[in-house]
Write a structure and sequence with these properties.
Blueprint: H1 8-37, E1 63-68, E2 81-85, H2 86-95, H3 105-127, H4 134-160, H5 165-174, E3 180-190, H6 201-220, H7 225-235, E4 245-250, H8 256-263, E5 274-276, E6 279-290, H9 293-317, H10 326-329, H11 338-345
Antiparallel strand pairs: 1-2, 3-4, 3-6, 5-6
Helix pairs in contact: 1-2, 1-3, 1-4, 5-9, 6-7
């Protein structure tokens, strides 16, 4: 069997994820397939498999990859081969997190061909003793630590990813303000009219402010917001926005500079003229209500998962303390990189583990 060179699709999966991801992929492939893949062919010929209609009908136990001439203990010529079943191949994809990326038959074939090359090259490496090399063993220890940490994190994901109905209801009742929503209209008046020359922009901005003040008074008196938007745009020579309706908004979905002003309003009230990056804006609250529990359920599940996972990791990290040699790690000028401060204070955000460090050597700066 002629081995094809790694395809561009397969290599892009490796190098896009970086060295650690590539190592994890190789390591997980070995774990997923292991000795079950590298075995000699049975002495009795296989039972012929009848033609099948499509890939989805291939039985889990059926061989999907067969590599002649590759096995853990070569026998007589023609008897040595490695086989991979559909179940083993799909388990490998799931284990290394590529099930969503391998979304076509072409991608699946590319991955299979690339995996065959990995198996053959790994076998060749063992034949010359690469697996006994100290550098290789050090790399494998790094991969082991990272893979073990990721596996533990996945176990935490599974543990906290499905809160009970009682937990969801309790969170909903304790955080009612988070589920309050307003239906809002907004009149927008830009600082700049791009139809005018630069020399006329200052005068336009002054005129726009005066128009915004007048329109705000009419909005507060109860006039229709869309009609006011049409009028002010026409008076300033601007294009009218498609709508003034911003729909239903919860806290955290509005510009921070104006959110508090808006949520302090009662239905029918308007804000002052808000000066924002885009121009002068006037907001009016049409109604206030609360998102029903059933509609908020998915958001609550995500929030409970995030909070519980963060609390679990924080509790684990509280048992360790890291000391770094500031002379070795600091940037010029004595400053530590921001990513390193994050790694020290919250390693999980960078996907790092934080083992107990060895005592700092003499001369380490604190």
């Amino acid at each position: 069997m002629m081995l094809l060179p790694p395809t561009k699709t397969f290599l892009s999966i490796f190098f896009r994820e970086g060295v650690f991801r590539m190592l994890r992929l190789v390591f997980t492939c070995v774990l997923a397939c292991g000795s079950a893949l590298s075995q000699t062919a049975p002495s009795t010929p296989p039972v012929p498999v009848p033609p099948i209609a499509g890939p989805e009908q291939v039985p889990p136990s059926a061989t999907v990859i067969e590599v002649q001439g590759l096995c853990s203990q070569p026998k007589a010529a023609g008897e040595c081969k490695t086989v991979v079943t559909r179940r083993q191949f799909e388990t490998m994809l799931e284990g290394i997190g590529l099930t969503t990326e391998v979304n076509s038959q072409a991608a699946k074939r590319n991955l299979a061909e690339g995996y065959v090359q990995l198996l053959v090259l790994a076998d060749a490496g063992e034949q010359v003793g690469i697996d006994k090399d100290q550098h290789f063993q050090e790399l494998m220890e790094i991969v082991r630590v990272r893979t073990l940490a990721e596996a533990y994190r996945h176990s935490l994901d599974a543990k906290y990813g499905n809160p009970s109905d009682a937990e969801i209801a309790a969170y909903y009742n304790q955080h009612q303000e988070e589920f309050e929503q307003l239906r809002i209209d907004r009149i927008s008046i830009p600082f700049v009219n791009h139809k005018l020359p630069p020399s006329a922009q200052a005068a336009f901005a002054k005129k726009a402010r005066a128009a915004a003040d007048k329109i705000r008074e009419r909005a507060a008196a109860g006039e229709d917001m869309h009609q006011l938007q049409v009028e002010v745009a026409a008076s300033l020579g601007l294009t009218t926005p498609a709508t003034t309706d911003l729909g239903a908004r919860k806290k955290g979905t509005l510009p921070p500079a104006v959110e508090q002003d808006i949520f302090n309003l009662k239905p029918g009230q308007v804000t002052k003229v808000e000066e924002e990056q885009t121009g002068f804006n006037i907001y009016k609250v049409r109604s206030r209500d609360t998102v029903p529990l059933e509609a908020a359920k998915n958001d609550i599940v995500r929030e409970l998962h995030r909070k519980n996972l963060a609390a679990a990791i924080k509790q684990i990290m509280a048992n360790v303390h890291t000391t770094l040699n500031q002379q070795f790690f600091a940037l010029p000028g004595g400053k530590m990189p921001a990513w390193m401060k994050t790694a020290i204070n919250n390693p999980a955000t960078l996907g790092l583990s934080s083992p107990n460090p060895a005592p700092a050597k003499s001369g380490a700066q604190k």
